[in-house]
UniProtKB/TrEMBL annotation:
Keywords: Lyase. This is Short-chain-enoyl-CoA hydratase. Coiled coil: none annotated. InterPro entries: ClpP/crotonase-like_dom_sf, Enoyl-CoA_hyd/isom_CS, Enoyl-CoA_hydra/iso, Enoyl-CoA_hydra_C. Its EC number is 4.2.1.150. It comes from the Bacteria. The keyword S-adenosyl-L-methionine does not apply.
Length: 258
């Protein structure tokens, strides 16, 4: 991999977008590499949580690569959007929990990448924004869809139409960032959260992720029914038996993830 660093430790995969000279901008090569890494990790039972971050202390990802995009034609623009949308959708649907550790600029495609993750933790110097209309384009890595779902239609329109960059505190206020930390502690906090989630019934976590992600794309009655199916499925797992037995025996559960 040229532009992605992958580290693994005790069930946590840390993916770093590594193009610091371009503030980790996503060119198509990087998107393809990211896609390959995501596909591989999705198959892995020994990896239970994923953290995505950017190289250096200035940027998470400063957007799609403007140098690469400047001479695209309409067909190539659409292909780029579809490539990124597929990779981000694969991230959203990974069986593992995915935490974005937003350590600086998360602009355009960077903000869109963070929104494909389950949880966004930001450092105090993080800046979020969708600058695309200032470049004469629209957000194309699913920002027009994920942003309104996360922060509401009005706020999403304001951010996209004005291109205003917001700081981590404001991102937290509008619920774009789940939590804000000092930059030096961001990765430790992300690992801490990953470990906390991994200490639960991890298969149930994965099912809850599916219930939320898929249910939100259904009408409410279908979503309730889908939730009931998933809830029922839990009663065929060892973790449900162990979790409830441990509660009754007043001890910590020993989950197996199945
Ligand atoms: N694409 C390509 N290169 C980029 C880049 C990007 N998105 N963002 C930054 N860079 C490059 C700069 O060109 C510069 O390269 P050189 O040293 O070769 O000149 C280097 O990274 C450092 O950047 P700056 O000198 O600009 O750093 P700064 O601290 O002055 O500013 C910044 C930081 C505010 C993030 C500024 O770089 C910037 O505005 N970047 C572009 C942000 C942007 O518009 N992103 C959206 C892209 S469009 C998109 O993402 C579409 C979509 O929906 C997917």
């Amino acid at each position: 991999m040229k532009n992605i660093i992958l580290k693994e430790d005790k069930g946590i995969a840390e993916i770093t977008i590594n193009r610091p000279k371009s503030l980790n901008a996503l060119n198509s090569e990087t998107l393809k590499e990211l896609g390959t890494v995501i596909e591989d990790i999705s198959q892995r039972k020994d990896i239970q949580a994923v953290i995505i971050t950017g190289s250096g202390d200035k940027a998470f990802v400063a957007g799609a690569d403007i140098v690469e995009m400047q001479n695209l034609n309409a067909v190539q623009g659409r292909e780029l959007a579809m490539l990124a949308q597929k990779v981000f959708s694969d991230i959203e649907h990974m069986p593992q929990v995915v935490i974005a550790a937003v350590n600086g600029y998360a602009l355009g495609g960077g903000c869109e990448l963070s929104m494909a993750c389950d949880i966004r933790l930001a450092s105090k110097n993080a800046k979020f924004g969708q600058p695309e209309v200032g470049l004469g384009i629209t957000p194309g890595f699913a920002g027009t869809q994920r942003l309104p779902r996360l922060v509401g239609k009005g706020t999403a329109k304001e951010l996209i139409f004005t291109t205003d960059m917001i700081d981590a505190e404001e991102a937290h206020r509008i619920q774009l960032a789940n939590k804000v930390y000092e930059q030096e502690e961001l990765m430790d906090k992300a690992r801490e959260m990953a470990k906390k989630i991994m200490s639960k019934g991890i298969y149930a976590v994965s099912l809850a992720k599916s219930a939320i992600n898929n249910g939100m794309n259904m009408d409410t009655e279908s979503a309730y029914s889908y939730e009931a199916d998933i809830f029922g499925l839990c009663f065929s797992t060892e973790d449900q038996k162990e979790g409830m037995k441990a509660f009754i025996e007043k001890r910590k559960p020993n989950f197996k993830g199945c």
